[in-house]
Amino acid sequence: MFGFNLNAMALGASQVGAMKDYFDINVIPQFYQPASLQGFVSTDASSNGMLDPNSIVPGLGFGADNLPQPPSNEDTMNIMQQYFNLQGQQQSYMNNFTTDMNSRKEQVFETNHYEFSADGKPVLDETSGKPKLYEGAENYVQKFQRANWEMSVQKELETKHQGEFSAFESTAQETLAGLQNQNSSVFDLEALNNRNSTIEGLQKQETDLALMQKQEYMEAICGHLPDPQNPGQTMSTAITSGFNEYNTMVEQGQQNIANSTTGQSYQNYFASVQNFITNQQTIWQAYNGQQFDPAAMKNFAKLNRMI
C-alpha cells in the first residue's frame, strides 16, 4: 500500500505525543478537506506521500487531466466509522476478558487463601516460587492482606512498564523526527513506502508493548492460580488463550475493513496514485529539453503516448 495505510487510524489512539501529532498532521487532513482535494497533501517534505498534482513536476503537474480520483467523502466517513467500530469491539472484548479473569480469581479464594509473612508478602510455594494456596476460604484479614499485596505488585509493574514505554517513546519520537526531516523527492516511491512501513512498524510496536504489559500484570496476579472453569489447568492457560483470541479478532477486523468495498476503493486509489507518480517520473526522465518548458514537456509526453 502506498502513502497511507488503512490501519493508520489506530495512530489516533497512540500514547506517544509525536505519533499523535503525526496522525493529526498527515492523516486527519485527507479525511476532512473538500472532495476535490481529498487525498492530497502539501508539497512540504513532512507530507505522508499522498499525491499533490502541483508537486509532481515543479510548477507544472503535467498530466493533471489523468489524476486518479480519490474516494468520496461518504467513503471516507464510512471507513472511519468501520475503524471506530473495531476499536469499540476491541475495548469491549478487553473489558469483558479482564472482568472474567478477575471473577475466576475471586472464585478461587472462596475455598482457598494465602498466608502472609511479617513483611506482608504471601508465603511462596517451594517448587513453583509462586504464592502458595492453602485450603480454606479466605477471611477478612487475609483478603485485606491479599489486596495490599496485589496493589504492591501493580505499583512495581507500573514502574517497570513506564520505563519500557519511555524507552519506546524516545525511540519513536526520534524516528518520527527523522521522517519529518526527510527531503526525499515526490518521485522517490521507495522512500515514501519505507516511511509508511516505518509508521506501521512503530504502531505495531506500541500495541504489542501495551498488550504484553497487560498480560504480564494478569500473569503476576493470577496466572499461577487454578482455573475454576478448567480443572487441572492454571489461569495462565486462559490468559494466554484470551490474548491470542484478542489478537485474532483485531487482525480479522482489520482484514474485513481492507476487504470491504470502501477498503478496496482506498487501496485501488493508493495504487493509482503510485502508478501516476511512476508515470510522471518516466516522462521527466525521458524529456531532454534544455529549458524548462511546461507546454513542450506535456506535448512531448502526449507525442510519446505517455499521457
Give the key terms.
mainly alpha, 1% strand, single chain, 307 residues, two-stranded antiparallel sheet, 2 strands
Radius of gyration: 27 Å
What's the average pLDDT? 77
The structure class reads mainly alpha
So what's the overall shape? elongated
- Quantity of strands, as a count: 2
Strand order of the largest sheet: 1-2
- Write down the secondary-structure element order: HHHEEHHHHH
What helical percentage do the residues reach? 55-70%
Helix count, DSSP H or I runs of 4 or more residues: 8
Major sheet size, sense and barrel closure: 2 strands, antiparallel
**Which range does the strand content fall in?**
under 5%
Poorly predicted ranges (pLDDT <50, ≥5 residues)?
A: 1-6, 8-12, 23-61
Q: N- to C-terminal separation? A: 24 Å
